[in-house]
């Protein structure tokens, strides 16, 4: 299904899709790092295992974020995968309507339709 729908992407739109996917990865990483720095810098309990508990919390944050990012970005994303990847990002509100005008109306509609079907 994705390969049929991907045929509507022009070479220029494939380039735009790749750039958009990369920019969302950067945004998500920035948000993660910002919240992680706040977590690391927040006050710790005075208990004997407070440092270890902070480490465990940090480890869990990194592991959970890695799983999330892997869900969106770790596959070998090729041109035939752009529409499904964009649809997942749109469904999960990582992309918004403001991000889509770089694509033709049929591509925007396909992204939204696939997102609704997920």
Protein model, in words:
With 118 residues, this protein is mainly α. It has 5 helices and no strands. α2 (11-41) packs across α4 (82-91) and α4 packs across α5. The protein is elongated.
Relative helix content = over 70%
Q: Uncertain spans, ≥5 residues at pLDDT below 50?
A: 1-6
**Strand composition percent:** under 5%
Structural class: mainly alpha
Largest β sheet strand count, sense and barrel closure? none
Count of alpha/pi helices: 5
Which whole number gives the mean pLDDT?
87
Could you give the topology of this structure?
Blueprint (H helix, E strand, L loop, with lengths): L1 H5 L4 H31 L8 H24 L8 H10 L13 H13 L1
Quick gist of this model?
With 118 residues, the protein is mostly helical.
Describe the structure using short key phrases:
5 helices, disordered N terminus, mainly alpha, 118 residues
